[in-house]
Amino acid sequence: MEPLSEDADFEQLMAALCESISTEPQKSGARRRSHGGKTRGGLSTKINAAVDALGNPVRLLLTPGPASEYGQAEALLDGFTPDRVLADKGYDSDALIAAFQRTGANAVIPSRRNRQHPRPLDLHSYKGRNLVERIFLKLKQFRRIATRYERLARSYLSMLSLVSAVIWLA
């Protein structure tokens, strides 16, 4: 997917994953189609988001519910050259951090508790990561996004892009 904006502030780029913003379609009696991952509660989809330093969404990707964050992290940041990449513990992987450093970005990611040698964390920079959490709160204000009326992933991603444009204009 192309970036949502060409004039974003890429001093720092924040990546996050929203675990439970959407569930299966709300239509009763609807035939289940493959649009996400099968979990205990039904079909689900995760929204992966990259946000610029101003808190505006620049890339949104969908993954099946049970999928890991690692699979989409590089795709979220593909084509961007940020100074810093802020992410949560779910993105703490030596391979991902090496990939971020190859692009010239500093990885500001807290170490997982079970890591043998924890990395130092710039807490001052990490405080700015709340902007990506705020994007998910803004997305949830749109009922169509929060309840996932769209049956197909491409339709849902189109609605996410439309809502992101509204957020950019607000």
Which terms summarize this structure?
single chain; 170 residues; alpha/beta; Nucleotidyltransferase, domain 5; 32% helix; 22% strand
Q: Termini, distance in Å?
A: 23 Å
Q: What is the architecture at the second tier of CATH?
A: 2-Layer Sandwich
Element-by-element helix/strand order: EEEEHEHEHHHH
Rough shape? Answer: globular
Determine the fraction of residues in helical runs and give it as a percent range. 25-40%
Superfamily at the CATH H level? Ribonuclease H-like superfamily/Ribonuclease H
Query: Strand share of the residues?
Result: 15-25%
| Count of helical regions | 6
CATH class: Alpha Beta
Describe the model.
The protein is an alpha/beta fold and 170 residues long. It has helices at residues 70-77, 94-102, 123-126, 130-140, 143-147, 153-169, and strands spanning 12-22, 37-39, 42-51, 57-64, 84-86, 106-108. Strands 1, 2, 3, 4, 5 and 6 form a 6-stranded mixed sheet that branches.
SSE arrangement:
Elements: E1 12-22, E2 37-39, E3 42-51, E4 57-64, H1 70-77, E5 84-86, H2 94-102, E6 106-108, H3 123-126, H4 130-140, H5 143-147, H6 153-169
Parallel strand pairs: 1-5, 5-6
Antiparallel strand pairs: 1-3, 2-3, 3-4
Task: Kindly summarize this structure in a few lines.
The chain contains six helices and six strands. The protein has 170 residues and is an alpha/beta fold.
